[in-house]
Design goal:
This protein is mainly beta. It folds into three domains: 99 residues, Immunoglobulins (Immunoglobulin-like, Sandwich), CATH 2.60.40; 114 residues; 109 residues, Jelly Rolls. 4% of the residues lie in helices and 44% in strands. The protein is built from one helix and 27 strands. Strands 1, 2, 3, 4, 5, 6, 7, 8 and 9 form a nine-stranded mixed β-sheet that branches. Strands 14-13-16-10-19 form a five-stranded antiparallel β-sheet, with no helix packed on it. Strands 11, 12, 15, 17 and 18 form a five-stranded antiparallel β-sheet that branches. Strand 7 and strand 8 form a beta hairpin. The longest helix has 15 residues. The protein is elongated and about 80 Å long. The two termini are 44 Å apart.
Length: 338
Amino acid sequence: MRFRIPLLLSLFLSAFALLAQESTPYSITPNSGPVTGGTQVTIKGDFGTWPYGVIFGTAGVVATRVDEHTLVATTPPHPAGTVSVSIFEYDIFLATDLTFTFTGESDERFERVLLPIFTPPVHGAFGSEFHTDLDVWNPDPSKTVTLFGAEYDYDQPDPDPSVTVIPGGKVTLGRVPESFDGNPGRFVYVAKDDFDLLGATLRVHDVTREAASFGTEIPIVREHEFSSEKRIAFPHVPIDPRFRNTLRIYSTAATTVTVTVGQQAFAVELQAGSNTYEPAYAAFTNFPSDGVGATTVTIDAERIGVDPPSPLLGPPIWAFISVTNNDTQQITTITPQR
C-alpha cells in the first residue's frame, strides 16, 4: 500500500508533531539499500498502538509495530539518492531527522524519461507569458503509476518530488519556481513498463494569446531514444532575422559535442545537472547567417582539432531546435533526423 499526504496537510501535521515529538530520538537500521526496494528496516523510537506508515522521500509503505520502541518496514522501489524518512502514527506526522540512501543504478528498476522543457512561467517579449504544462492520464483500470521527479505547482519545493496517478486518473503538472535553477530539462523516473500505461503531453503556451494559439507541443523523450551514434542532424533550419533559433542539447552526463551550422563548427560543453532529476544541458543560440534561407545543423560527438576526428566516448545525447517568430512569439519545434 502506498499513499501520499497532501502538502498543506503534511505541513500542518509536521508543525503539530514538532510540539509533541521534539525530544524523541529515532534511528533506522540499515540506512541504505538497493533502488529495487525490498530492504527491511528497523526504526527505533517511542510508538503507541496506532497503525503506522513510513514515507521514504514521498513513497509510503505500511509499517509493522513490533513493540512500543520498534517499527519494521520494507522499502519501496525508488530512484538512486538519499531521501528523508518520515513516520505517520495514524494521521499524526512524527518529525524525525532520519534519511535512507537508495543505491545502485536507477535503470535496474526505472525508466528515465526526458521532459526537454519543464519550467515555471516565463515572461517573454511583447507581454507574452509562457506556461509549461505536463498532462498525464492513466487509463489503466487497476494500476497506480508514480512519476519520480515530477511535481505539482505548489508554492513550496519538494526535495524528493513525486506524483502518483491513480487508475483512471488525470493530473496536470507544472514546475515549482523555488526549485528551478535555470536548467529547463527534467528527468522523471517511472518503473519499467509503467510509462507504457500512461498518456502524456507536454505543452508550452502563451497565456496572453490563448485565443489565437493552443500552444506548442514539446516531445517527451524516453532515454532509449537518445542517440548513441556520433551524429544528430537537422537538415532544414530557417536562418532568417524574423526568427530566433535555440538549439537545446541534453545528455545523461556532462560531455562535449561539436555543433556545425552550415560550414561553421563550434565546441559546446554540456554542464552536469545539479541532481538526479536534471539532465546535462547546453543551449546554442549563435546561429551564423550565410545569406541562405535555411541551413543544416549537426551535432557530433567528436573532438574539435583532432585529425582524423576521434569519437568522444561519452553518454548518449538528444537535442531539438525551437524556432520563435519574433513578431507573434509563436514557437515551432524541429526534432532531429538520423
